[in-house]
Amino acid sequence: ATAQDDITGDGTTSNVLIIGELLKQADLYISEAVVDSVLAVRRPGYPIDLFMVEIMEMKHQSETDTKERSQVG
């Protein structure tokens, strides 16, 4: 641990750089309009949030209906 602390410090700069890169990648997804997607990490011992999956499915159906109606009218 001492050798690592001498090389990298307390990790503050490393964390700032990683967070900056994550934000940069998120900006790419936002610019590609991938904002309505659900990104999830399955954690052992925790159930999948099926309520959130159902809400996202309902939202998608609603958006599809709206698009179809606007194309007809």
UniProtKB/TrEMBL annotation:
Protein name as it appears in the record: Chaperonin containing TCP1, subunit 6B (Zeta 2)
Signal peptide positions (record): none
Family: Belongs to the TCP-1 chaperonin family.
Highest taxon above the source species: Eukaryota
Keywords, alphabetical: ATP-binding, Chaperone, Nucleotide-binding
GO function terms (MF aspect): ATP binding; ATP hydrolysis activity; ATP-dependent protein folding chaperone; unfolded protein binding
A cellular-component GO term for this protein: chaperonin-containing T-complex
Gene3D superfamilies hit by this protein: TCP-1-like chaperonin intermediate domain
Gene: B4DX20
PANTHER family per UniProt: CHAPERONIN
Organism: Neovison vison
